[in-house]
Write a structure and sequence with these properties.
Blueprint: H1 2-21, H2 28-54, H3 60-92, H4 96-122, E1 127-129, E2 135-137, H5 143-161, H6 168-187
Antiparallel strand pairs: 1-2
């Protein structure tokens, strides 16, 4: 089932990228951000798909491949939210000084999170493979959610303060984007 879901995710991401090139008529900035976001979603889905395909194969190459694919899924999910947050910031047009500070804050948080994730992977706390060559997430598996919640909190504040800068449909889309992942982030620890 997971394999099928990831294959569908890869196909949807590819289809979305193709639509951007063949008929999505918006300004260049929107097309660029959508291309970046769909590309990062494609990489995320590919890393999870590879992880599912490699799971259970024995040998050091498979173990390293699973650890890399698992780690990339963590990192790419953080990067995707970073790109969406930057797109929202571009759409809302807050004053230049506020925009500069928010981008600096988000970039610093992203760099710090990347360093912590790299250290966590090196220390064996994030993406792991057991003695049966089965992938599992380590004790720091929820670490990536901290920055995601932080970025989404900034997005929420921006939407509240500058909501008049975008259409009702855009507010609904970004509200859904903020609401559904946050719901899953808070429900995930409750699931086995």
């Amino acid at each position: 089932v997971n394999l099928i879901i990831e294959m569908i995710g890869v196909m949807v991401s590819l289809f979305s990228i193709l639509l951007l090139g063949f008929g999505f008529s918006h300004d260049r900035t929107t097309v660029r951000y959508f291309f970046i976001c769909f590309s990062s979603l494609l990489l995320y889905n590919l890393s999870i798909l590879l992880l599912e395909l490699m799971n259970g194969y024995q040998g050091s190459k498979w173990r390293i491949g699973m650890m890399i694919a698992g780690f990339l899924s963590f990192l790419i999910s953080v990067l995707t939210v970073y790109f969406v947050s930057n797109y929202l910031l571009t759409l809302l047009h807050p004053p230049a000084k506020i925009t500069r500070w928010i981008r600096l804050l988000m970039t610093a948080a992203l760099v710090l999170e990347t360093i912590v994730l790299l250290y966590g992977q090196y220390a064996g706390k994030i993406a792991l493979v057991d003695e049966n060559y089965r992938y599992y997430e380590g004790e720091w598996k929820n670490l990536g959610f901290i920055i995601v919640v932080f970025f989404m909190f900034i997005d929420y504040l921006l939407l509240v303060w500058y909501r008049h800068q975008i259409t009702r449909g855009q507010r609904l889309a970004f509200g859904t984007y903020l609401g559904l992942p946050l719901l899953t982030i808070f429900l995930r620890p409750l699931l086995p």
